Amino acid sequence: MLKQLDITNFTAFADASFTFSPGLNVVVGANGTGKTHLLKLGYLFTRAWPDFANKRLPLLERRAEGYFEDRLMGLFRPERLENLLRQGTTGQTAITAEVTSREKAIAIDDAVERSLPWSPDTQRDLCWQLAFKQEDREEVALRATRLPQGDPLLTAQPLPLFIPSKEFVSLFDGLIALFETYKIPLDETYRDLAVAMTVPESMTPSDLLSQMIEYLSQIVGGELMLEKGKLRLRQTDGKLSDVSLMAEGYRKLGLLLYLVRRNVIQPHSTLFWDEPEANLNPELMRPMVEGIVGLAANGVQVILATHSLFVLREIEILMGDQRFKGLPTRFIALAPGDQGVQVSSGDRPEDVDPIAALDADLEQSDRYMELE
To answer: Within this chain, do residues 234 and 307 fall inside the same structural domain, yes or no?
Structure first.
């Protein structure tokens, strides 16, 4: 889980610090204030340790530098690495991330690996620090100035998940092959999500959203399933239909249901979701928000970015629900400034200012009242 992120002279950020809740985190702000960039950086650092563990790679300085450079290029898609540096800056660009890892230890006995049971006390604080250094007039080199202590080869943990703002279900078929063969105008969050969705279905049913699964299935009209590498909709009457025939909003709800049912989203992992409200009408936003808050209440760290005042209000309404009493929350507002993006944060929506969606809503109300 992501605890802290400090950013200096990276994209829109001059000097910004972020603290995250282990439960629900909501990032709001106007276009161009770095909401998606913030989510991608969080995803980058929460994913690094399990990537080294899953690939059976020791954590060496040069290897880490190569990993982070490749991932930054793949996640942000700049033409050159130096394009990620804040324009007009003369100071050093650096990023520091603190991640709390709740791990499943691996015991090696007579060359046989076996997973040990989860323990609430089994966790590790990981600190990563990257610096971008000018090698010459044109080239920028990335340096790993601090790496976590310990050996990722001896641990295993669930991968974080990033759901991008574009509707994903209709893009799924053949997406992995396209990434492997062609240079396509999508960042690597799309490939990572597609790969995560192809894991074999677990024999153990997910405990997440157990009370909402039937409710979401009724709204969607069934559930998504993977058949010969293609996503299909299995309707409530058992018939199969193409996902292309589903309304876009139902595809997004169907994706959430699929990820939960197949244990792609797991407790103690982090879910990053960029604009979950995109292309949803308010009627479908309500179950979507309830599902997201439900995940956070069941041990999944959720970090979402939104433009929607409706989403913010639904979250506030749910915070008053007895089911979600005591859920740790964090609200982060980003606003443009002369010295880079300005950050305001707090545990409640009223603690942050400004909220661009709220300001725009009030301004529209004033204009509407002037018509009378």
So the answer is: no
DSSP 110-130: TTEEEEPPP-TT-EEEEEEEE
Residue 271, sorted as left (phi over 0), alpha (psi -120 to 50) or beta, turns out to be beta
**Residues 13 and 66 grouped into a single domain:** yes
The residues that bridge with 238 in the sheet, in sequence order, are none
**pLDDT tens across 180-204, in order?**
888 888 999 999 999 999 987 777 7
56: left (phi over 0), alpha (psi -120 to 50) or beta: left
Same domain membership, residue 128 and residue 38? yes
Q: Domain ends where: 230, 265, 300?
A: 265
Indicate if the alpha-carbon torsion angle 253, 256, 260, 264 is positive or negative.
Answer: positive
> Which of 18, 54, 300 lies closest to 156, judged by CA?
54
Report how far residue 59's alpha carbon sits from residue 333's, in angstroms, rounded to the nearest whole number: 35
In this prediction the pTM is 0.91
- Per-residue pLDDT tens digits for 147-186: 998 777 777 778 999 999 988 998 998 899 889 888 888 9
292 and 147, same domain (yes or no)? yes
DSSP 113-178: EEEPPP-TT-EEEEEEEEEEEE-SSS-EEEEEEE--SS-GGGEE-PPPEEE-SS--GGG-TTHHHH
Whether residue 234 sits in one domain with residue 121: no
One domain for residues 270 and 256: no
Supply the Cα-derived Rg of the chain in whole angstroms. Answer: 21
